[in-house]
């Protein structure tokens, strides 16, 4: 399952 | 945040500091690809525009500012302060061959067609290949200074550690970002040859020289 944006990484 | 990501971020930070210190202490940017550094500055600029829109954590914001500031400081050292030592004759990779495909790919494969999301996607694709001008330069001259090879190792190790972090996050949070994972794996594969030579040569105290 590919989830969308969750850009908490650098 | 998990230990793999933290170690990855630390490796990334170490890589940047090693590069800046190398240039500063030797007063020279010989052997360093300015073109790769331009691409990295572009990577951080396009990825961290979200500094103005989203707040994740103090750690997150501080690291973003450090990565942005250090990438521009590196460019300043290469193209202004120590310009005379810049080895432009060997830094001949055509970066448009990386930039154009990354723009096209980010328009084709993205999570969402919003400006910030498209910039993030572009930055992920570009980061995967941004080291190529540097690796091209090393392959052209056939060697790298030991300190440059430490820089490259830390920079490569950072994304490799992120892969472990993604596996960990998949099992603990069921979170996976296909774009980052695929690009991150390609990015790490590009360093594979270098890792092999680094471990078999540099760590044994020999100079980093490509086999003739």
Automatic annotation (TrEMBL), chain B:
Q: Where can this protein be found?
A: Endoplasmic reticulum membrane
- The protein in question is named ER lumen protein-retaining receptor
State the family named in the UniProt similarity comment for this chain: Belongs to the ERD2 family.
Transmembrane region(s)? 6-24, 62-80, 92-113, 119-138, 150-168, 174-199
The GO terms describing molecular function are: ER retention sequence binding
Q: Quick check: keyword Protein transport in the entry?
A: yes
Keyword field: Endoplasmic reticulum, ER-Golgi transport, Membrane, Protein transport, Receptor, Transmembrane, Transmembrane helix, Transport
Main localisation, per the record? Answer: endoplasmic reticulum
Matching entries from InterPro entries are given as:
ER_ret_rcpt
Membrane topology for this entry?
Multi-pass membrane protein
Q: Give GO terms for biological process.
A: protein retention in ER lumen; protein transport; vesicle-mediated transport
Q: Which PROSITE patterns match?
A: ER_LUMEN_RECEPTOR_1, ER_LUMEN_RECEPTOR_2
Q: Name one Pfam family in it.
A: ER_lumen_recept
The entry's cellular-component GO terms read: endoplasmic reticulum membrane
């Amino acid at each position: 399952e590919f989830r969308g944006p969750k850009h908490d990484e650098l | 945040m998990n230990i793999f990501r933290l170690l990855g971020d630390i490796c990334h930070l170490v890589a940047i500091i090693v590069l800046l210190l190398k240039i500063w202490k030797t007063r020279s940017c010989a052997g360093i690809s300015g073109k790769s550094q331009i691409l990295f500055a572009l990577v951080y600029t396009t990825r961290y525009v979200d500094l103005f829109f989203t707040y994740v954590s103090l750690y997150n914001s501080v690291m973003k500012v450090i990565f942005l500031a250090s990438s521009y400081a590196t460019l300043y050292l290469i193209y202004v302060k120590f310009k005379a030592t810049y080895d432009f004759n060997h830094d001949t990779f055509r970066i448009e061959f990386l930039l154009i495909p990354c723009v096209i790919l980010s328009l084709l494969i993205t999570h969402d067609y919003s400006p910030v999301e498209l910039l993030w996607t572009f930055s992920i694709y570009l980061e995967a290949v941004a080291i190529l001008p540097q690796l091209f330069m090393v392959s052209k001259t056939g060697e790298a200074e030991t300190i440059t090879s430490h820089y490259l190792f830390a920079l490569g190790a950072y994304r490799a550690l992120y892969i472990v972090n993604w596996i960990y996050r998949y099992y603990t949070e069921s979170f996976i970002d296909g774009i980052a994972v695929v690009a991150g794996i390609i990015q790490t594969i590009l360093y594979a040859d270098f890792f092999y030579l680094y471990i078999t040569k540099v760590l044994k105290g020999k100079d980093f020289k490509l086999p003739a």
